[in-house]
Amino acid sequence: MEIGPIWRMLMKSKLTALLIIFQIAITLAIFSNTLLAWNTLQNLIVPPEGFNKKDLIVVKANRYQKNSDGAQIFTQDLEGLRAIPGVLEAAPIGHEPNGGWTHIRTRKGQEVKRYDIIDFETNTQGLSVLGIQLVEGRLFEEHEVEYVRYGNDEGKDTLLLLSESAAALLFPRQSAVGQTVWLGGNAHPKEVIGVYKDIFGGRIEGQDTSHVTMILPVVFLERASRSNYIIRTEPGHAESLFEAVRQTLYKVKGRYYVHINTLEAIIEKSMDTYYVMIRIFGTLSIVLFLVVSLGIAGLASYSVAKRKKHIGIRRALGATRWQIIRFFLVEHFLIALVGIGFGSLIAMGLNFLTVSVGLFRHYLGIEQLLGASFFLLLVVGISVYFPAKRSAAIAPAIVTRTV
Amino acid sequence: MFRYNLKLALLNLRHRMDLTFLMIMLIAIGIGAMMTFYSVIHNLSKDPIPGKSKHIFLVQFERYFPDEPPLLDLRDFSRVHTYQDAMYLYSTDTPATQHVMYFETDLVADQETDIAPLTLLRGGATTGTFFDTFEVPFQYGGAWDKAIDEAGSPVIVLSQLTNERLFNGRNSVGQQLKINETYVTVVGVLDKWPVPLRYYDGTMDPDHKYKAFVPFHLAINSQFERDRYTTGCNFDEEGLLGTFNHEYHYESLIHSNCTWITLWTVLESEAQVRAYQEFVKHYLQEQERLGRYLRYWNDSVVTNLIIFMKAHTSIVEAFQVFVVITFFFFMVCLANTISLILTKLLRHSKEMALRRALGATQKMILIQNMIETGIIGGLGGILGLVSTHLGLWGMKMMLVSNFNTPDPLFDDQFGYDAWVMLLTVVLSIIGTMIAGAYPVWRVCRQSPAIELKL
Known about the structure:
The structure holds two protein chains of two kinds. Chain A is of the alpha+beta class. Chain A has eleven helices and 15 strands. In chain A, the strands form four sheets. In chain A, strands 3, 4, 5, 7, 8, 9 and 12 form a seven-stranded mixed β-sheet that branches. In chain A, helix 8 runs parallel beside helix 11. The two termini of chain A are 29 Å apart. By secondary structure, chain B is an alpha+beta fold. In chain B, helix 1 packs across helix 13 and helix 13 packs antiparallel against helix 14. Classes of the chains: A alpha+beta, B alpha+beta.
């Protein structure tokens, strides 16, 4: 392996080497951050194990006529929804998933630490639609569900369920069942009667998706923005039922339905910043790879053209074709490695920049750098291969042409 | 001499069309990516009301819990007020010229036909002073007056897009419209009003285009659903937060200590600013004596519109990072341009050597080559105008499909104005010439004798 001569040759044409190093460094920096964004998204989209997000429809409906009879509309809605073929169960829900959050404390008092938690208000049918699986304690029963007409939500309901993540957060060293929590300043205390397996939660501002959720046995009959419904459908049928659901609910005057979506679509929408970022980074990466691979091929050709005599002399002195090709390949791999070295530094710098601004929330790891480097070396190899092959075709007789 | 050089340059460029074409494409792509993001930043940072913006202030007096340390960062200050405070400052004789109150509501327009569906409008419940203060342009009709404000009469002002949707864009002044359960009369239709980020309600979010404006008291009396979350109910009322968000029952909200109204004021001189600050502080001290607050407030009480916008531009920061990234991308494209120039020069080396031998100076060769690179840069820049436009369009389309919004919504953020266009071409030329400088200079320094050998 003739590293020595390769190195000396490199030093002679510093400009080409530098150009390749620069391009590889930038490409690595951008591509590894793209991989990071992609990885983060993959981790985020995955809902808790076993949670079915495909066959669940969420309808967000607002009531804007407060004079209508909430209870009657409610009954009418559910009857209509359940009558749709393909619907397995329908239930009301207060907040739609990814629709908001509130605060919770483990002791009463202003100075006590406040946690962010996502609240779902529903009845027992809702538990079945959401597919709640009990881990500890018990679920609430239908007679414990409070149907609230207008009033504050400090109703008479005094119990709630926590998700596993919520229980772990609020009561890390003990069982959450039987504990008391307070929602908001002067609220009545509520007792935790059960803990359930994590379901999808939503985004809490400034953070990624949280699975810290709680379920309250409350149904709002007259609240404008909390007359939403969740519907469990037969597998695979969710989207085809949108129109039927729309027709059923739309008939009631005084209600405006805002949108209808599968839970899967809602989860994806909550990650939309990531999707946008990946598209931008991804597009840049693809164009970069194209430009850089063509660029390296071009520079390699230039290299070959400049060194015709050198190659000819070596061939005349007995070098095989393969040795000539190998010379170029090794030379360019060395350059690429240097580029990768610098590129890693730039990649990390870029990552810090995006984190400081809030675009990313994770730091670049070794996996992304290695993955990007590997792919990059592959691309370099392919780009250099064809000019290298041409170099081997140079006849030794070229030596005799000029001095 | 210049014409001769120019002729040579063009000849050379045509000689290897493929190389020239490649170089122009590279530059266009590189500059296009960078200017796309720069353009967005440029649009988002524009002064929305040049000339008047220095007189418009957001009233911000922060209140926080007694044991907490004072808030120092402008970004953490509350941007909304309680009903009592806002109404007091609006109605009393203060040193300020004018006040504007604002909160967002959801309005459902029911055109009571079988064909037209319900339309959800994003409403602004505000005072008539809103339109004059923010210099909102009207296409038909105008704002409502103080009498209507005080009575809370049922009138409405529609944005241009809303008018197009509801009335097919014709002059709808005088028409009746059913909003929720109330019949309102259209008194004005807005003209095209560029608002890249919604500053007037303090959120700095992208604007809604299906907008409508109703009088402040009308919204409260008719119980239009309030759109945003309150911030800062004090501890005792925290439990009511859930009740107050997204709701249409205003009774308890009005009497509570929860904050929900954005308040702007117009102060036209330094002296007026100071007088107003004194006035507000005096009022707050009085309120404290009455036992209403257990809180403190920040010193300045008012924040200028431009300063406020600059403090809340996290979107701009994010885009600045993208400009940095695309700047490097542009550098990569220039690096490849350098390599293409090197290749090109390699082919012309014999010709240049011949010219040198015939008496051309190094300087002349240099100038001729720089003219060539300049032309490439210029052509790349012109093509870059197209690629930037494409880039902006692409980004807009991506957001439109993601958020399912109407197309014109993002026009203000992704527009492409003359200044940015000029910058595109100029940066292209400068970039290319810098890129081409080193290889050209190096080639000119070579002794012609070597190249003339064979």
